[in-house]
Structure formats: structure tokens, C-alpha cells
Amino acid sequence: MKKGWKFAFLGLLALNVLLVLALVIGLLLPIEEEPLPEASPQEEAVKFHVQSNKEDLNKVIKMFVEEQKANSLVDYNVYLRDQVELYGDVAVFSERIDYKLTFEPEALENGNVVLRQKGIKVGKINLPVSYVLKAARDAYQFPDWVKIMPNDKIIYISLDKMELKSNLKVRAERIDLKKDDISFTLLLPVENK
After folding, report:
1. Global pTM value
2. Per-domain residue ranges for the chain?
3. Largest Cα–Cα distance of the chain, in whole Å?
4. Per-residue model confidence as pLDDT tens digits over 108-152
5. N or C: which end of the chain has fewer CB within 10 A?
6. CB-side exposure of 9: number of CA atoms within 13 Å?
7. Distances in Å between the alpha carbon of 76 and those of 101, 133, 159, 176?
8. What gap in Å lies between CA 95 and CA 66, rounded to an integer?
């Protein structure tokens, strides 16, 4: 009986060591990086300039997030404050662990948006940004127009590739959350006759 207990203990210990090794190796492997997406060519369109604020944009973001969460195992919410804040929780074993990611948004000349990572907190622990972004990119399905780039610590949002009703396209012109100054251009494609 004593020998069986010792073998079971050593087997369990070996399994734990293997799991920890696999986790460490997975975290230390180099991160494969994709280049920034190319902006889609602009077709002829009628332009509508929209000035907005964080409160109204939070309502729109909530609608998009609710649609995306319906097909996801991850629970999260996105809020615009003085920076973009993403809150959520993830299941680890039998517990739920809270996380918070903060980003600084930037409207690019091509109308797309870059979210530059400012901080990540899981529970009470600050974690390395690139590893967490890599884990998120590898573990979850994001829309085609969202690219997570761990080496650069950014999330690239290709607004020009986002599919909206009536083939409507969106271009970010200015995003200054601290001044609550947000402007977009809506592009409605028209046929040239």
C-alpha cells in the first residue's frame, strides 16, 4: 500500500511539473506578428460628418459588444472614459478572475483606430502586456476587422473593413477622450452613373 501511494504521489507531482513547464514554455515562445492591415481603397461615397461624445459612443459600443458576447465564452464590457477601459472576467479552474485592460485610442490618417495598451491587471496583479495580448489573440475569436498585435502592444481596428448595414463605412477623424471630442465620417457608397 505504501509503494502505491508513493507512485501515485510521484505521478501527480510529475503531472504538475509538466503542466507548469508547458505554461512557462507557452509564455516564453516568441510571438508571431502580422503586419498592420492595409486600408481598403475608398469608393465614391457621400460623406456625413458626425461629432459625438463618450456617453453616446458608450451606448453604441455596448450594442456591438452585446452582439459579440452572444457568441463568446468571455464576459467583458468596454467603456470610454479618459481612456478606453475593458473589464471582464475569465474562468480559471472553478473560479472567475476579474481583469482590466486600459488603452489610449488614436485615430489614424487612413480612418482606422489604434488602441495602445497602457496597462493590464488580472485580479490584483499587473501582468506583461505582450503576453496577455498574445494569450487573448490565441484563445478568443475576434472579428476580422480587429487585429491584436502583442509585440507592438496595440489593437488595430480596421473600421474600413467593419461590415455595417447599407454598406455604410466609418472613418475615425479625431478621438480625444480627455476633452470628450470624438468625430467620425460616415461614408455611404453611391453608384456612379
Report:
1. 0.71
2. 54-160
3. 88
4. 999 999 999 888 887 777 777 887 788 777 767 778 888 988 888
5. C
6. 6
7. 10, 15, 21, 23
8. 23
